[in-house]
Amino acid sequence: MSHGLLWWVLIGFFAGILAKGLMPGSAKEPKGCLMTIVLGVIGSLIVGFIMHTLLGDRTQGGFVATLVGATLGAMLLIFAMRKFWK
User: Fold this and answer.
1) What is the pLDDT of residues 54-64, one digit of tens each?
2) For the whole model, what pTM was predicted?
3) What is the Cα–Cα distance from 82 to 7, expressed in whole angstroms?
4) How far apart are CA 15 and CA 30, in angstroms?
């Protein structure tokens, strides 16, 4: 496993935990470590794509900015998932 991929998984894991903590759901929603990582990583990719599209290559985030962006993306993903889950 490359260093970059491991970094994405770790950031995704923590972002997913933060997002699920800020937006707790019902008992019927999918849970677990894998789902938390997936939500965080995909959320990070969504926000990363949006920021790259809006700002181009001028972004110089760092750990905190990456974690905040990934968490916001995961929250957006949780919100969308809940709309379609019902």
Assistant:
1) 776 555 667 78
2) 0.75
3) 27
4) 16
